[in-house]
Amino acid sequence: MSCRSEESVTAFRYFVLESDTASAAQWFAFLAQLPARVTAIYTSGKRSIHALLRIDANSKEEFDAHAVPLKRPLKALGGDSACLSGVRLTRLPGCHRPETNGIQKLLYLAPNPSLVRLVDLPRLRTRAGMLARWKQLCPRWNPNRKAFQ
Question: Is the pTM higher than 0.85?
């Protein structure tokens, strides 16, 4: 009778990965090295960071087969290996989490991710690049001045 039962799942598109014990730096390093289709990374509104991996499994068996190589490294980082189940809820970035008074924040989004490690993707923006872009778009802007001209 529950909507959160394995019998209610009609598609196995994503994994949710999370760790309540790894530091943010360790967790991001792990995610960056993971050869996976990382669709989104976001905070839980408390202390953990969640990652949504696209797998598009055709069955529960295929879903479980994708989970096997992730369990060991996930466990080594203190990740929640129980999150590798087909019945898993995830956080919704941009929403308030009342029990912690926190905001769930979106950190990374790739709606159509490719199967490549994040560390191998080209860097799209840097601070220096953004500053140069702002200077080009607004020549009057000068970061050394206290106000706009």
Answer: no
User: CB of 75 within 8 A of CB of 84?
Assistant: no
Per-domain residue ranges of the chain: 6-120
Give buried/exposed letters for 40-57 (b at 16+ CB in 10 A, else e): bbbbbbeebbbbbbbbeb
6-120 topology per CATH: Alpha-Beta Plaits (3.30.70)
What span, in angstroms and rounded, lies between the C-alpha atoms of 131 and 4? 47
Residue type, 65: A
Question: In b/e form, how buried is each residue of 133-146, taking b as 16+ CB within 10 angstroms?
Answer: eeeeeeeeeeeeee
Question: Could you read off the pLDDT of 30-86 as tens digits, one per residue?
Answer: 899 988 899 999 887 777 888 999 989 888 888 888 888 887 777 777 776 666 666
Structure tokens at 89: 């809820």
